Amino acid sequence: MNGKIGIGKIMKLEILLVLGLLVLAAGCATHKAKDKIAFSDDAEIRAAAASAVVQPAQKKLDKADELQIEQLIFGYLLERHFWDLADYSAVFLSADEAQVGAMIKKYSDHNPPIKHSSHALLPGHQTPVDKDTRKPAMILSAEINEPNADDSVDALGRWYAGDAVTGFRAFNLKKVDGDWQIATVK
Fold this sequence. Notes:
- The protein has 186 residues and is α/β, with parallel strands linked by helices.
- The protein has helices at residues 7-29, 43-52, 63-78, 97-106, and strands spanning 90-94, 114-115, 120-121, 129-130, 137-144, 153-160, 166-176, 179-185.
């Protein structure tokens, strides 16, 4: 047959090709689901990953605890006299009006006096000014974190009297016999 392929050989090649494809297809069909390739954008994989990462329930402070911690921090800062080297005419507390009112009563003879924030002028990047006296003033604030694993609480007490007069103290507080107490100050 001089280089010519007969019809019989072609049919045998076609049959072998078809059988080969069937064997390959059968091999792929027997691939177990447990060996499934996981793609990161597969919805099942995302759902499984989301359920696998279980976040512990975040502890929260109730409002009464937050207020008591703020009072401790403000009390600590008010007793430190950050204003002795300058002529500040007021101290403003960054807190809700009820908290400021309570601190005004508690520290009624404080010098400089504690005032509500409605009496403050806040020029950008400059020393706050007391509207009543037009003299420099200081602002105190407290930032309270959520409770730690040991139920202690970390907080920051800040003071601000312009960009050049600013700072903070880091507090760790613990509840003892139902009342919050400052454990450490840094």
